[in-house]
Amino acid sequence: MSKPIEEYGFIGNMLSGALVARDGSMDWLCLPRFDSDACFAALLGASKHGYWQISPAGESNRSSRRYLPHAPVLETTFETEGGIVTLVDFMPLSNDPERVDVVRLVQGVSGKVRMRMELALRFGYGKTIPWVRRRDYGIHAVAGPDAVELATPVTLRGEDMRTVAEFEVGEGDVIPFTLAYHPLHREPHFIDDGRKRLEHTLAWWREWTRICQLSELEEPGWNDAVERSLITLKALSYQPSGGIVAALTTSLPEELGGVRNWDYRYCWIRDATLTLYAFMNAGCFDEAGAFREWMLRAAAGAPDQMQIMYGIEGERRLTEIELPWLPGYENSLPVRIGNGAHEQIQVDVFGELMDTLYTARKSQLGPHQEAWRFQQAILSRLESLWRGPDQGIWEVRGSPKHFVYSKMMAWVAFDRAIKAVEQFGFPGPVGKWRTLRDEIHREVLARGYDKERNTFVQHYDGVGLDASLLLMAEVGFLPPDDPRFRGTVEAIERDLMEDGLVLRYRVGETKDGLAGEEGTFLVCSFWLADAYTMIDRGHDAAVLFERLLSLRNDLGLLAEEYHPRHRRQLGNFPQAFSHVGLINTAYNLRRINGPAQQRADRSASPHATHTSWTGTAGEQHRERSID
C-alpha cells in the first residue's frame, strides 16, 4: 500500500525537486527538470520503479523530522537502541540547468548506529534499468541520454539490481552521499564537500527569506505558515525562466483508486494573478517580476493561439499520454504525463492575464513596455470568444458550457483594459470596451443568477453551484455588500461544504466527463475565508483559516485536496495554488487592504500604489544570484 501523502517532505532547488518519506526513502525525483522523466517513481508504483532509501539497518525506535529554519532542507532524526543519527536531504543551488545534484548527509548525534543505503535507479518513469559501473568515487549509471554519479566514501556493492551499502555512524561522523545528474554528452562535474554545500544552501535561503521580510501576522504560527508556503513556491519555480509549476508530481489521484489523475508539472496562466499578490505582499518582487516575464513570453504570439497552460520554459506541446507499466498511487489509474487540457478553450484566462498585468502596473513592478500591444490583440479575440461556451476554470472533460466564472473573467479583462487607459494613459478603444463590459455584466446577471434561490449558478441554464463564484466580489464584479453575492456565499455554505470545507462543485450536477468523486479543494476553502473577510465575517474567516492550517502535514505542506471521510490529503503534492491561497488569506485576515481588497479596488488614481507593496522590502528589491 502506498504511503499517505502526508508522509512526504519536499526538497527542491528551483530546477527540480524530490519527495522524501519519513522512513528516509526518496520515492519521487525527476532529473534534470521538474517535468523530466522520473528516475525514482516508487511513489506511483513499487520499489522496483525506483527509490533511494537511507535509514537504520535495524528497526528504529522513533523517527522525527523538520525543515531547517528558512530553507527547503529536510532533517530526519532516527533514534535507535544504539544511538541517534540524522539524515539531512537537500538539493544544492545550481546555475547550470543540466547539472542537478541531490545531497544526503548522514550525521551521527550520539552512540553508534548501523545504517543501510539502497539505491534503485530506474529511468523513464520506472521502466529503464541503467548500466551501472564502479568508479573510485562510487558508481556511474547511464541510460539513454541520462547519466548520474553516486559519490560517497562508503563501500558500495550490487544486490538484486540495486546498489546497496551498510555502514556505521558514530557520534560526530558526517557521511555524504551525492547523486549528480548530467546529460550523457557532458562530462561528470566535480562534486565538492557536502557540508560546505549545505552551509551555502542554507545561507542563500536565509538571505532570501530575510529580504522578503514578511510582515508580522496576527496569530502565533501564521508567520511560519506563510514563510513555509513562500519557500515552497520559490522552490517550485524554475529559475532559468521564472515559471512556477502547479505541483511537483503527476497522477496523484483526486479520488483513491479513481481516474482523476493529472500531470501538474506545468505552469498555468490562471495561477498568475493570485501568485503575484502572494509574492508582492510578502515583498518578493524579484519572483513576482520573473513570473510576469515568464507569462508574457509564454503567451506571446498570435492571440488565437494563446493557451491556458505552458511548459516551464513556455513549451506549448504538452501531449498527454499514459504509462501502462506503472500501477498508480494506491492503484489509481491511469498514470498520465503531459496534460491534454492545454488544448482547451478556457475564456477566464484572458481575464486572469489582464488582471495580472494590471496588478503589476499598480505595484512596484511598474508597467511592461511591450505588453500593451499584446493585450490589445487578445482583447480583440475575446470580443467574440466570450459569447461561446468553454471548458471553464476546472478544465472539465465533458461538453463545453457557458460557465459563469468564465463570463465574469471576460468582464474582468475588459474592465482592466479600461482602467489601464484611464489610469495609465494607454491608447485603446475604451468606448467599445465599456460597451462590452456592460453587456457581459447584464448577461451574467440575467442568465447566471437564480432569483428564487438568491445565488449565482455554475453555468447558464444550470442549477449547480461552483466555488469559483466566491471570487465574484474579489475581482470587483459585484461589491461585497451586494445581497446577490452574500446569497451566493450562503448557498455555497449550504450545498458545497463537507465537514466545514469546500468542494469545487458537485460532480453529479456538473457532469464533468469523468467517473468517480473527489475531495474538497483546499484553495476553494481559502477562497471562502477570503469571501468571509469581504462580507465582515472576520471571525468565521479566522476559524476556517485555522482549520485549514491544521490540515497541513507536520512539515507545513499541502496537497490539492483533503478528503474528510478518509482524513487525508489527496491530489498532487505539494500544490502551489493551495499555498498561494494560504498566503493570501493570511494577509487578508491581517489587513484592511489585503489581497482580496486590492484586487477588487476600483480606484481611479493614475498612480495608485497599495501601501502593502511599499516599504523596506521594496527598497531592498534587487537581483540575487544563486552562485
TrEMBL record:
Cofactors, names only: phosphate
EC code: 3.2.1.28
Any one biological process term the GO annotation gives: trehalose catabolic process
Reaction it catalyzes: alpha,alpha-trehalose + H2O = alpha-D-glucose + beta-D-glucose
Domain GH15-like: 223-586
Chain ranges of the Trehalase-like N-terminal domain: 2-153
Any GO MF annotation of the entry: alpha,alpha-trehalase activity
Renumbered residue ranges of the record's region Disordered: 595-627
Keywords from the UniProt entry: Carbohydrate metabolism, Glycosidase, Hydrolase
Positions with biased composition (Polar residues): 606-617
Metabolic or biological pathway: Glycan degradation; trehalose degradation; D-glucose from alpha,alpha-trehalose: step 1/1
Record bears the keyword Hydrolase: yes
UniProt xrefs under Pfam families: Glyco_hydro_15, TREH_N
Family recorded in the similarity comment: Belongs to the glycosyl hydrolase 15 family.
PANTHER family documented for this protein: GLUCAN 1,4-ALPHA-GLUCOSIDASE, TREHALASE
Protein name in the entry: Trehalase
